[in-house]
Write a structure and sequence with these properties.
The complex is a heterodimer of chains A (373) and B (189). Chain A has seven helices and twelve strands. By secondary structure, chain A is of the alpha+beta class. Chain A folds into three domains: 100 residues, 2-Layer Sandwich (Beta-Lactamase); 92 residues, Helix Hairpins (Orthogonal Bundle), CATH 1.10.287; 150 residues, Histidine kinase-like ATPase, C-terminal domain (Heat Shock Protein 90), CATH 3.30.565.10. Chain A is rod-shaped and about 140 Å long. The two termini of chain A are 85 Å apart. Chain B has six helices and five strands; from the N terminus they run ααααββαββαβ. In chain B, strands 1-2-4-3-5 form a five-stranded antiparallel beta sheet, with helices on one face. The chains are: A alpha+beta (373), B alpha+beta (189). At the A-B interface, helix 2 of A face helix 3, helix 5 and strand 5 of B.
Chain lengths: 373, 189
């Protein structure tokens, strides 16, 4: 800090000014600013004039030269000139001059700017976190909703076979000696128990999947043998809906190395879906053959089809397509999830092709012919 | 590179040229000043900005003072001429200042219209400019001035009321405002 006259003569200087502004520790008092300042004289004069005319602290910039034996050191100072005493007759005006190296002055702004930037980043991060949280909340709400629909459907699906079984038991009680009736009722009850068993097994499989407990046990087997096993499980529902099934199988049957139970499960699920999602009297085509080192299994139907926006979602657990007008039961939404996971455990792929609603669907599974253990 | 031949495009679009846009120099400059003063107020703060504004106001005041002195072929203005100049300079830039009263101690001015128009609302930094211009002209000619902005359109009043004290009296000392002094001889450029 310096005390100067309106003419730029240094009256006094504080110790810091003595240390910083002059390397030779020359006395600053009685020296002129022009001895140290490298600004053009007219600029310095203008600055001093502004300082003398108002009590408002006037900002400015001085290029200070504090030279010593080693050479010149030029430092730019941000300055403020505050009029302490205006000129009074012969007494000159007195100005208090505060100097701060521009670097230090800039540093304050830099620190402030940095703080603002940090705050801004923090606000953005919080906003993003809030948005993520909102998205997660929405996903959880959606999952919860699907779970509730699943539970309701599960209860329905479990109860469905129980009705005929209970009715069958009543009839058996009433007509224990009617052989034809007993045989018919037994057959119906067996079908319902089989349906229940499949449902419970699917649920157990899903549970095992989520706990990483499904094992694949590959063995060498004829592909057509696996297909026949799958047909055994799905033909009842195909025939029940009076669908026409066209099979395109290779003869002789190629030998493959797969988990026969799981591959049968895959094919049976796809065939059952095709039957359920096609109006009665529809057409289903089954292709099973090898192409090079791949097994190709294709199930096509001319049923209700799948809209473009659902073609990925159908493999999501508990996702259910809306039921068709002649199908009130939309299913549990676990079948295709199971199929996809079993295919992936076989190191295979599954895709669905459909041109949209009521345009049928084709599911295509590819697996290695020889699966390793 | 734009072609200069007639009939060829010079980077202009007739539809763009005919568009009804409220943009012309006067309005643009007023808007520019509004934004500049607003930025100073908001970023630096009015008090810190006052130093910058005083520098600009003094320079403008000096130029205006010189122009009037030259036009009137005089070296300095007397108190009545100072009052007339303050009113006239504002009139020329579409303000509507008038003298409410004047004596040897002070000039009291009113103003019905601001040269900055509606752009001045919420911009006391622009009033500070007026204070510096008035203060510089008055002090440079009469030795001393203290400008008190008692009411301003910028702060929501219907008219401005500005008092320019010409002497350092008790009343001037009590008033809120900024003081201005004549240029030091040794700082004359």
């Amino acid at each position: 800090m310096l005390l100067i006259t309106g003419a730029g003569e240094i009256v006094s200087a504080n110790p810091a000014a003595g240390r910083e502004l002059t390397a030779k520790r020359t006395d600053l008092p009685r020296r002129s600013l022009t001895d140290f300042v490298l600004n053009p004289p007219e600029d310095l004069a203008r600055f001093l004039k502004h300082c003398c005319r108002t009590r408002t602290a006037v900002p400015g910039s001085l290029l200070w030269n504090s030279a010593d034996e080693d050479g010149a050191t030029h430092i730019t100072y941000r300055v403020e000139g505050a009029l302490l005493r205006p000129r009074d007759g012969e007494k000159p005006a007195l100005i208090q001059l505060r100097l701060r190296p521009r670097e230090a002055a800039n540093r304050r702004f830099q620190i402030l700017n940095q703080r603002i930037e940090d705050l801004s980043r923090e606000i953005h991060a919080r906003r993003r976190a809030e948005e993520s949280l909102l998205e997660l909340t929405e996903q959880l709400a959606d999952a919860d909703k699907r779970k509730n629909v699943f539970l309701a459907t599960l209860a329905h699906e479990l109860r469905n076979p129980l009705g005929p079984i209970r009715t069958g038991l009543e009839i058996l009680k009433m007509k224990p000696d009617d052989v034809a009736t007993v045989e018919k009722i037994q057959s119906i009850m067996e079908g319902q128990v089989k349906q229940l068993t499949v449902l419970v097994n699917d649920l157990l499989d899903i549970s095992r999947f989520t706990r990483g407990m499904i094992e694949i046990r590959p063995e060498k087997i004829a592909l057509n043998e696996v297909i026949q096993s799958a047909l055994g499980m799905s033909l009842p529902v195909i025939e029940e809906n009076s669908h026409t099934l066209v099979q395109d199988l290779s003869e002789p049957s190629p030998e493959v190395t797969v988990d026969p139970h799981r591959l049968s499960q895959i094919v049976s699920n796809l065939l059952t879906n095709a039957a359920k999602y096609t109006s009665p009297g529809g057409n289903i085509e089954l292709t099973a053959r090898t192409e090079g080192d791949e097994i190709l299994i294709r199930v096509s139907d001319n049923g209700m089809g799948i809209a473009q926006e659902n073609q990925q979602a159908i493999f999501t657990i508990f996702h259910q397509l809306p039921p068709s007008s002649d199908r009130t039961n939309a299913g549990l939404g676990v079948g295709l999830t199971l199929v996809k996971r079993l295919v992936e455990l076989h190191s295979g792929t599954i895709i669905v092709v459909s041109e949209g609603e009521n345009r049928g669907s084709t599911f295509e599974v590819r697996l290695p012919v020889k699966m390793s253990n | 590179m734009n072609k200069q031949c007639s009939g060829e495009t010079n980077g202009t679009d007739p539809e763009v040229e005919k568009a009804a846009i409220p943009l012309e120099r006067d309005g643009f400059l007023r808007t520019l000043l509004r934004h500049l003063s607003g930025t100073l107020q908001d970023v630096i703060g009015l008090e810190e900005a006052s130093g910058f504004i005083s520098v600009v106001g003094q320079e403008i005041g000096d130029e205006i003072n010189k122009a009037y002195c030259n036009a009137l072929s005089i070296s300095s203005l007397d108190p009545e001429q100072v009052g007339a100049v303050l009113v006239d300079l504002k009139r020329r830039i579409e303000g509507d200042f008038y003298i409410i009263s004047q004596d040897e101690d002070k000039i009291v001015l009113g103003n019905r219209a601001c040269p900055f128009g509606e752009k001045v609302e919420g911009r006391p930094a622009l009033c500070m400019m007026t204070s510096n211009v008035f203060g510089s002209i008055a002090s440079e000619n009469l030795g001393y001035a203290k400008v008190s902005l008692e009411e301003t359109i910028a702060e929501g009043h219907s008219e401005c009321r500005v008092v320019v004290y010409l002497k350092s009296t008790e009343e001037a000392a009590q008033a809120e405002g900024r003081e201005y002094f004549k240029t030091e001889p040794e700082t004359e450029l």
